[in-house]
Design a protein that fits this description.
Layout (H helix, E strand, L loop, with lengths): L4 H4 L2 E4 L8 E4 L2 H4 L3 H19 L2 H9 L4 E2 L20 H24 L4 H26 L14 H5 L6 H18 L21 H14 L3 H15 L20 E5 L45 E2 L2 E2 L14 E2 L1 H6 L12 E2 L2 E2 L7 E2 L1 E4 L12 E4 L10 E2 L17 E5 H14 L3 H15 L10 H15 L6 H7 L3 H8 L3 H6 L11 H6 L7 H5 L3
Antiparallel strand pairs: 1-2, 3-7, 4-14, 5-6, 8-9, 10-13, 11-12
Helix pairs in contact: 3-5, 3-6, 5-6, 6-8, 6-9, 8-9, 9-10, 9-12, 10-12, 12-13, 12-14, 13-14
Amino acid sequence: MKKILPFLFLALTVSSCSLDEKIESSSVKEKYYKTSAQCLTGLNGCYIPLRNIYGNISYFVVTECQADMIYYNGTDVMDAILEVSQSKPQFGTTMWTQGYIGVSRCNAMEAAIRKAPISDEEKAPLMAEMTILRAFYYYILTANFGDVPFYEEEVTDANNDAIATLPRYPAKKIREKMVDELREWILDKKALSFTRTYDNNSNPEHRMGAAVGLMLAGRMSLWDGYWNEAVEFFSKLEKIYGNLESYPVSDIKFRNKYTRESIFEVSYTVDDYKLQVYHSLSSRCLPRREQYASSNPDEELDIRSQDDEVDYYAGIGIPELGRYCTTRNPFRPTNKAYSLLPYSGNDKRTCSSRAGGDVEDGGGWMAWGWTGYTPEDDRSTDKPHWRFFSGVSQTSRPYLGDKFWCFGMHYTYDSNNIKVFRYGGAVLGLAEAWRELGDLDKSLSYLNKVRRRAGASEYTGSFTADRIRQLIMDEYGIELFGEYSRKHDLVRWDVWNDVVSENTNAGRLNQKRKPCHRYYPIPSEQITYSRGALDNKEYEEYGL
């Protein structure tokens, strides 16, 4: 950990409370944090590592392409084929470094808030927001590394060496500590209002509030089998968000920002003459943009207007995607994914557009085709019409759908928000927890809330507890498809290795996959910096 410590002494401030403002550093935080507004600017800096983690395409690979619903079989993304070891931790280095930068910034802000000459009433919401942010970073670290070093002290010259040489600490105890702190500030002290995160009337700056804390506490409780606690936290969210069916499936698309169902989104923007903050997920989710287009595969019909500017994607002209984006070899759904969401099904999540027309309230999880143009169409007179993408039929593998597409993208600049937590995930958490508590009827009722909202057939009749567990696990994969959680769910259910072996279509991943890959290794250089306090014993057993 010592390598990251120099970052920890920066007290980050900005010129206003907006989370999108430019970050500046201050070397005199003791003199700066005198008001609530100034403390808020310091908390802004605590959000930045989250963007650095989720905004990297590799985190989608870690959480989704190493699981059973989405895959990538190319050799240009090492994390996708689990070319991961202690000496080559790949994205593990970023997850570790940014995770602990986030923890340490939160620790520093806790000290600053406690010392600030403001009232306890002013301090309470600031402390609660800091607690949620710190819990978020420990959630990421434990989900991806298992047992990790734990500390809540501000880093100083006096404790620098001690923190740098901390050993692994049980992930379960870390999560228990985080849940206790979230309970203290959210439920006991009621430091934050119980409102939806993206209710602009009460939270115009989209800061983390009680809803994010409740979601984190519920998710952490699921990890460690605290079912009653999971029900408690998710039920509080149910009171805030209400009827799941009141939130359209179509709102879940990443380009629909700050929707009412969302509990937390990582925000991005690409605007002319404004701050440009973007990621590149869409470039890996679109069909390949073509350099030419023709209905005759033997004919290269040049339709370029200038510099290869073409809006044809796998044989379909799609004006809304534009002529300027750069696409890469795409991620694709596995056989399991599109067998659970078939082309001809009634589930609204399946697609947004198909041969019968646009799907009302369609979610666009997958795309077999699109409503667009052929090269022979006269766009001045012809209307767009639906067709399958080249090489795709209703019985073959689709592309990832427009849930992940960024319209009008230039190069790889995806300005969509990334959906991290949604109310639909909390409802599934209630289904899971009630099943584990033995109330199968209540478990099915929550599972059916998710399916009913999606227009899918509900489960009726009698089911065994084991069968309900499998249905819930599959529904997690469907409902939260591509939302940065699938591998974590498979790991916490202790089924990751077997499920991926049976269901991934990535042969290269299966060739490299070892049981130790359920978690990432601590980078070997961090073990060196810890003077041997840290280790990767599980990886060493497999010679990695």
